[in-house]
């Protein structure tokens, strides 16, 4: 859009979306393809190689599942980015995209949060019998969460249809003038319940976990191993949330506020649109980073992963026997292996 278009759009109080650079769609597809490969392999390890699941493994499996389900719709979203932001795939496909996106992002956040709570309880309250440590309870909880996520996704899909404006089809964009009030309300619900609240829980759990880990005797090999493992988990989860979910929610919130109260500022809105898509790619990197949680957070998954690589003819780095034994012993006493 050139300068005169922006001026005319400002006078008409409308802003037309611009096509995004093709590299945005290519990067998006590559990120989610890598995420599919990593999470598909993780799901295979969980289902075929990890024979004894506990509560932590159930949570990690569900996180991998929520990461993998978005991949089939990625080509549609990439095409939308580069086709003048003109949705040409029909109303049903748009509603399906919105529903699956909701399930994917909300599921990733809530399962990441539950893994954080589980890690906190396992370390800080290792000597207490709590429901979150019980596999049967976790299975029922995950089933209830999936039911809630599906209902919520269907509701969002029903509430946010395709709209035709200036002969272009719009799907899930701030340029849908007819839906800006709905976007405004939905955004702040999502921002609080799926960003601020989980972030508070995560920070609380891992600050307490860090405090507990700091008291472990690091003069022994066992204490040093437990501390390194737990601190690694702290860093991974905080990094994933800060990189993948926080920027997306912040940029989206700024975008809906500007659209609602300063809709004539077209250039700013177009810049926010591009920034949102860039943050969307960052959010997709979550699918590539979550497998680190399974590898570093689950001793059983790590062993099954290494066995799987050996079966495929890949020789992974193997720790010496003494170190493996001390890690296993310390985990049994202090961490309740996930």
List the helices and strands and how they pair.
Layout: H1 3-11, H2 22-49, H3 55-68, H4 74-82, H5 91-124, H6 135-159, E1 163-165, E2 168-170, H7 180-214, H8 221-261, H9 266-297, H10 299-311, H11 321-334
Helix pairs in contact: 2-3, 2-4, 2-9, 2-10, 3-5, 3-6, 3-9, 5-6, 5-7, 7-8, 8-9, 8-11, 9-10
Count of helical stretches: 11
Distance between the termini: 52 Å
Spatial strand order of the main sheet: 1-2
Number of strands: 2
Model regions low in confidence, pLDDT < 50 over at least 5 residues: 1-12, 317-338
Mean pLDDT, as a whole number?
Answer: 81
CATH class: Mainly Alpha
Share in β-strands: under 5%
Which structural class do the helices and strands define?
mainly alpha
Rg is 22 Å
Helix content: over 70%
Label the CATH architecture: Up-down Bundle
In one word, what is the shape? elongated
- How many domains is the backbone divided into? 1
In the CATH hierarchy, what is the superfamily? Rhodopsin 7-helix transmembrane proteins
Largest sheet: 2 strands, antiparallel
Order of helices and strands: HHHHHHEEHHHHH
**Which fold name corresponds to the CATH topology?**
Rhopdopsin 7-helix transmembrane proteins
